TrEMBL record:
This is protein-lysine 6-oxidase. Keywords: Copper, Disulfide bond, Glycoprotein, LTQ, Metal-binding, Oxidoreductase, Repeat, Secreted, Signal, TPQ. GO terms for cellular component: extracellular space; membrane. Belongs to the lysyl oxidase family. Residues 3-104, 257-357, 367-477 form the SRCR domain. It comes from the Eukaryota.
Length: 479
């Protein structure tokens, strides 16, 4: 079984649920639908849980089969197929009753999309530079979240003429689809859009100009091919020896905007530097367009959310500006129209914040916790030597010099929020079968995305106490 979110308009973590069964995509009827059903489906889609569900084709009517009806889950099932239902393909519904889900915007650590397809080998096979986008894309750092999504677009009108390439997420992808197989499979595809025309600064593809195919779509895009993209991480997410160099280049010159108070990379309260003093932005008229300008200025993709009401905590000091009204095309927030305000016009309970799209880098697969009483605490174990298909070797981190800043990075890399404590001794936690110390001298600034980006001793271990009781540990918190 494969699952995907579809429909319009929607965010990346919500939509009409479509399931791939018996070589055909279909929908789920909303009869007797519950939040427990949504929990199971959201986990299929890689999210930790559901926050709601939608009935009556809120995200638009699907096409093809209605695979499931009268679904009744308890909520803990591993597969939607384990829930009670009328049987596959047995339904008395129409597509006006297609069910949708709203998932909590938090990914399951280590989750990989089942339909992610390798693009780099295929790009090389057709003679393109693997690092070159196969289709016109927005600013560097713009992520591609998820794999091939419902419906495909015809490239003939408004898209560059490129070979057929499968869509993958920004960052590592796996598997391979041959050009012959792709050509064969496109014969059965449903094409929804054509004549897509973007400027490159839109927050979402739905904001571009496009046209829908009407009626029978089986004959659509007869002379064309599926429109696809190949995404590459931006400079902030560069790996290897050039990481610190590129990071320094990004930081050259005095930054005039930053994110504070967020537990994860690419999210936080927006703060701006004015008259040598950092201050916040009032949330009046704060929207996705302005939030996306902030995200791109900081080296991320477009904005997933424009948050109001001090959702990322209240700032201190001045509130510098209000009523920011970006068009979305600006390269800096300072190029957008805004109002200078006095402190009396707004309160810090109205501080604006953002959640930005970031490429999937798989950092959470290189760290884990052991021995703790819950998933939020434990002895830190890191993977070393994981490259070129080699199996990673797991080991401990030396506790000498380990503190809150290092714990902040570890909790961020784990996707577990904020750091409550960084522990230099962990003798009171249950032992694991990992006893070798593999990392020492870790010293973080606190903003890094992975412990591997922090200063450390490299391959030459230098730790006075290498026993497991002196291994580094963390206690993380979502708040």
């Amino acid at each position: 079984l494969k699952f995907r979110l579809a429909g319009y308009p929607r965010k990346h973590n919500e939509g009409r649920v479509e399931v791939f069964y018996n070589d055909e995509w279909g929908t789920i009827c909303d009869d007797d639908f519950t939040l427990a059903n949504a929990h199971v489906l959201c986990r299929h889609l890689g999210f930790v849980a559901a926050t709601g569900w939608a009935h009556s084709a809120k995200y638009g009517k699907g096409v093809g089969r209605i695979w499931l009806d009268n679904v009744n889950c308890a909520g803990g099932e591993k597969s939607i197929g384990d829930c009670k239902h009328r049987g596959w393909g047995n339904s008395d519904c129409s597509h006006e009753e297609d069910a949708g889900v709203i998932c909590k915007d938090e990914r399951i650590p280590g989750f990989k999309d089942s339909n992610v397809i390798e693009v780099r080998k295929l790009l090389a096979r057709v003679g393109r530079d693997p690092a070159e986008p196969a289709a016109r894309s927005p600013a560097v750092g713009q992520p591609c979240r998820g794999a091939a999504q419902p419906g495909l677009m015809e490239p003939q009108a408004g898209w560059p003429s490129t070979p057929p390439l499968p869509v993958g997420r920004a960052g590592p992808v796996s598997g391979l689809l041959s050009p012959c197989r792709l050509f064969t499979e496109r014969q059965q595809l449903n094409y929804r859009l054509h004549s897509v025309s973007c400027t490159g600064t839109e927050v979402h593809l739905s904001m571009c100009a496009f046209e829908f195919y009407r009626g029978n779509t089986s004959a659509a895009c007869g002379a064309g091919m599926p429109a696809v993209v190949s995404c590459v991480p931006g400079p902030l997410f560069a790996t290897g020896n050039g990481h610190k160099k590129k990071q320094r280049q990004q930081q050259q010159g005095q930054p005039r905007i930053r994110l504070k108070g967020g537990a994860k990379v690419g999210e936080g309260r927006v703060e701006v530097l004015k008259s040598s003093e950092w201050g916040t932005i009032c949330d009046d008229r704060w929207n996705l367009l302005s939030a996306s300008v902030v995200c791109r200025e900081l080296g991320f993709g477009s904005a997933k959310e424009a948050l109001t009401g001090a959702r990322m905590g209240q700032g201190t000091g001045p509130i510098h500006i209000n009523e920011v009204q970006c068009l979305g095309t600006e390269k800096s927030l300072w190029s957008c129209p805004f109002k200078n305000i006095t402190q009396e016009d707004c309160k810090h309970t109205e501080d604006a914040a953002v959640r930005c799209n970031i490429p999937y880098m798989g950092y959470e697969n290189l760290i884990r916790l052991s021995g703790g009483r819950s998933r939020f605490e434990g002895r830190v174990e890191v993977a070393v030597g994981a490259g070129d298909g080699d199996q990673p070797r797991w080991g401990l981190v030396c506790g000498e010099g380990w503190g809150t800043l290092e714990a902040m990075v570890a909790c961020r890399q784990l996707g577990l929020g904020f750091a409550n404590h960084g522990l230099q001794e962990t003798w009171y936690w249950d032992a694991s079968n990992v006893t070798e110390m593999v990392l020492s001298g870790v010293k973080c600034a606190g903003h890094e995305m992975s412990l591997s980006h922090c200063q450390h001793h490299g391959t030459s271990l230098n730790c006075r106490n290498t026993g497991t009781r002196f291994a580094a540990g963390v206690i993380c918190s979502e708040s």
